[in-house]
């Protein structure tokens, strides 16, 4: 397959050079666009409906995961860390890893299965912290948790680097291992975070911000494109 893969890479690179504008959803994606296509891009974060989520007056002691239960999400790290530490963990979501995760889970880990959208805001607002152990291009759920005023414990890579501010809106752990996550959870102090400041940070990712940014960018790009076309036509006529 190597010769075929090499041809596909060349075709993909050539196709990317015909793109007029690139918009990246995070710094990580912007870096990939530059690395693989040698093209510049602008970052416009994906829209998050932050209005659905509001801080609660108090929080409970459980950690929370909301995710599809599939391998690359690395929910196994959260399950094993919570089991090792004997800390309460609630997991909302379904997926093919459910049996494997249940087998690794101790008595403090609770699997909620599918949770309706209207039940998520309260579940997030009452957690001690939201866990985000995988590597994602952006990650909507950590922003939702922050909109609910809750800090996030996330792997320090990918989109989390754009959405989680260490010491202010959460904690970043450095290695994608059970040991690294367990240390972050064991040392975590939920009461050291200001829920109002966390929610204020999440507001910059609101859908209204996205709508304004994407509209302005497209309008500006379109006007530049028209100006270039008109200039080209004028030169041909002359």
Description:
The chain is of the alpha/beta class and 238 residues long. 46% of the residues lie in helices and 12% in strands. The protein contains 10 helices and 8 strands. The protein has a 6-stranded parallel β-sheet with strand order 5-4-3-6-7-8, sandwiched between helices. Helix 3 crosses helix 8. The longest helix is centred in the last third of the chain and has 31 residues. It is globular, with a radius of gyration of 21 Å.
Task: Let me know the largest β-sheet.
Answer: 6 strands, parallel
Helix content: 40-55%
Number of helices: 10
Distance between the termini: 52 Å
Derived structural class: alpha/beta
User: Low-confidence stretches at least 5 residues in length (pLDDT < 50)?
Assistant: none
Mean pLDDT: 96
- Widest sheet, order of strands: 5-4-3-6-7-8
Shape: globular
Output the radius of gyration. 21 Å
Proportion of beta-strand residues: 5-15%
| Number of E strands | 8
Order of helices and strands: HEHEEHEHEHEHEHEHHH
